[in-house]
Design goal:
about 375 residues, mainly alpha, Farnesyl Diphosphate Synthase, two-stranded antiparallel ribbon, two-stranded antiparallel sheet, 17 helices, globular, magnesium, Dimethylallyltranstransferase, metal ion binding
Length: about 375
């Protein structure tokens, strides 16, 4: 098959010795795909949220950026819409119209936002998409309830189709959701461990991020009548794309610009997350790695109150040690390795060339972004 219109403009050598491509984004193509996903999925998503009892409907509308904290209409950032875009492309990969994938796009988006509502509360995040998080504005109880309601809605949207394909799609979504929850549980359990292996971290991130992206890129195909092999290969693409996505998020979680990410500086370090840059730095060996290990071991013994009193300089020094030990570079290279694995999976199935090119363009977008 031919390569996507999203050209590869350079290559570099990864820490494992292989040549790794640095993708260039086909910006116009990606923007059009994301916008199509929003345009087709948002009305159905709004209608689904409208089924919720008050005040959950209002709280959910705030979370999605449709209203502000006072209840006034808003054009707040509602996210990148990568998952809806993938679900619509997934339907086209099976030879169906993109509209066939809309229920799947909405269901996946509901599950994704269920996880965000709960994760923000568990992680203590006060900002998302440049606004106060739901638990901060409406309280922890509403964050939990609305998250639960969005999860229930996701299954309702699919099952009310009443088709065999809808049942197959629901099974995939349910499995992906369980893996997502497994990943969040692993993430939390790692925060107070002194050491986490790279393999454990990748498993956690594969569950937390890869599983739902894998579902997004197969669910439309299933609704469009694709066989299990086609759906499984599309899931393989989505799983590795999810690992690439999370690796980029891990870099941004430490070094991202708050004006772009909508989160505080050194966000993941404030939460003591054992993200890929941290884990890779600790596994690297050398003076910087050993110094980092001693500091993080001491951090793990501190109470939440003691840790909350850290200065910006203390977080900056930890970030500098992670970078000096090679954690930042290793993670950036891992994102590119996972990206290449995702693209290679597409060669295992026969899908329209235009759809393949668009899937490649979206994959490129995932690894070259600032938020």
């Amino acid at each position: 098959m031919t390569t996507s219109t999203s050209a590869r403009q350079s290559t570099s050598i990864g820490n494992r010795g292989e040549t790794v491509a640095s993708p260039a984004i086909d910006t116009a193509s990606v923007t059009a795909l994301l916008e199509r996903g929003r345009t087709l999925a948002t009305p159905v998503l709004r209608a689904a949220v409208g089924r919720l009892a008050s005040p959950m409907d209002t709280v959910a509308a705030y979370h999605f950026g449709w209203i502000d904290a006072a209840g006034n209409p808003s054009t707040g950032d509602s996210g990148k819409a990568v998952r809806p875009a993938l679900a619509l492309l997934s339907a086209e990969a099976a030879g169906a119209a993109p509209e066939v994938g809309i229920p799947g796009a909405v269901a996946v988006e509901l599950v994704h936002n269920f996880s965000l509502l709960h994760d923000d509360l568990m992680d203590g995040d006060e900002q998302r998409r440049h606004r106060d998080t739901v638990w901060k504005v409406h309280g922890p109880a509403q964050a939990i309830l609305v998250g639960d309601a969005l999860f229930a809605l996701a299954n309702e949207i699919l099952l009310e189709l009443g088709t065999v394909e809808a049942g197959r799609a629901t099974r995939r979504l349910t499995l992906a959701t369980r893996k997502l929850i497994d990943g969040q549980a692993q993430d939390i359990s790692y925060e107070h461990r002194e050491r986490v292996t790279v393999e454990e971290c990748l498993e956690m991130e594969g569950n937390k991020t890869g599983a739902l992206l894998a579902c997004a890129v197969s669910i439309g195909a299933v609704l469009g009548g694709a066989d299990d092999r086609t759906a499984d290969i599309l899931e393989k693409y989505g799983y590795h794309l999810g690992l690439a996505f999370q690796a980029v998020d891990d870099v941004l979680g430490i070094w991202g610009d708050p004006d772009s990410t909508g989160k505080r500086t050194w966000s993941d370090l404030r939460q003591r997350k054992k993200s890929l840059p941290v884990v890779a730095a600790l596994a690297a060996g050398g003076e910087a790695s050993e110094r980092l290990a001693r500091i993080l071991a001491a951090d793990a013994k501190k109470t939440e109150t003691e840790f909350a009193d850290f200065t910006e300089e203390e977080f900056a020094s930890r970030a500098a040690l992670i970078e000096e030990a090679g954690g930042r570079e290793w993670t950036s290279q891992e994102a590119r390795r996972q990206h290449a694995t995702a693209i290679a999976a597409l060669d295992e199935i026969d899908i329209p060339e235009k759809v393949r090119a668009q899937l490649v363009a979206l994959a490129d977008f995932v690894v070259v972004r600032e938020r």
